[in-house]
Write a structure and sequence with these properties.
alpha+beta; 60s Ribosomal Protein L30, Chain: A; four-stranded mixed β-sheet
């Protein structure tokens, strides 16, 4: 049995492509990532937020593959974006990676991240 999306009739629908809640029943494995940052394998960091978002989701994909999981196993996403950055590209990168998998999702604007060059950071929970 896969994750069940919870969307009560008594509340407004989600504001974007996500589920209000996701319930996992009888999960064998649960993966919690740290905040995944936009560092390329060569140590570089793209200057623009769109490139950084793409890098973050590529890094998440590598983590999921190492855990023998895929984006279909992701049930929760927390995204941190530096204030003033355009979130459209960040949301598009998330939606592109998840391919219609509606997850519980939170997006938070922050004044800065741990490194000044970083504009986006994402943590996920995956269940298999």
């Amino acid at each position: 049995m896969g994750p069940e999306r919870i969307s009560p009739d008594g509340i407004a629908p989600p504001a974007a492509n996500y589920a209000h809640a996701v319930m996992s029943v009888h999960a064998d494995r649960i993966l919690h990532t740290s905040g995944v940052v936009p560092i390329e394998p060569d140590g570089s960091v793209c200057v623009d937020v769109a490139g950084q978002a793409t890098t973050v989701w590529s890094n998440i994909e590598a983590i999921l593959e190492e855990a023998s999981m895929g984006f279909e196993d992701v049930v929760s996403v927390i995204t941190y974006v530096v204030s003033g950055e355009e979130i459209g590209a960040v949301m598009a990168a998330r939606d592109n990676a998840l391919l219609g998998n509606l997850v519980a999702s939170t997006l938070v604007y922050v004044p800065e991240l741990a490194q000044p060059a970083w504009k986006v950071e994402v943590a996920v929970v995956a269940v298999a």
